[in-house]
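This section describes the prediction task in plain terms. A model, or a person checking by hand, is given the sequence of a single protein chain and must write out its three-dimensional structure as a string of tokens. No templates, partner chains or ligands are provided. The sample shown here is typical of the held-out split.
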Amino acid sequence: MTERMIAGNGVQLCTEPFGDRGDPPILLVMGVGASMLWWDADFCRGLAAGGRYVIRYDHRDTGRSTSFPPGAPPYSGADLANDALGVLDALNVHRAHLVGLSMGGALAQKIAVERPHRVLSLTLMSTAAGPSESTEATPQGRQIVPGRDTSPRHAGASPMVFGT
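The expected answer:
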């Protein structure tokens, strides 16, 4: 596959799809300051060989995407989440499996909570549900409550449990 620049939300984002557009789509959302190249091309090709349409992209201020002068960037996390959706829109993908790493996991969670109809599944790596482990209200009025499942199948995991 080859890189493709897409326009959306007032910026240009560099994307690179792998695989057949007819296969279930996976959007790989990288962490802050890391280009899409951190999603190794062989990894992407392997997922595509398994019957997935894999999409990686550069956030604003990363890789080949639109850059802003150093200092206070003129965008927010909400803009970055909307950029991810803009990538899907530009590639005519209505729903996708989201895989988020670090800040990309926070963005993927934001999309899953605010636009669940766009998400087929959510895979999170090296991320958290919020900026701290304190209980915080979400826009839907739910609270995120730290929890731990101590069963053997979750040994070492510290999942976040959603409560009302």
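For orientation: The CA atoms of residues 6 and 13 lie 5 Å apart.
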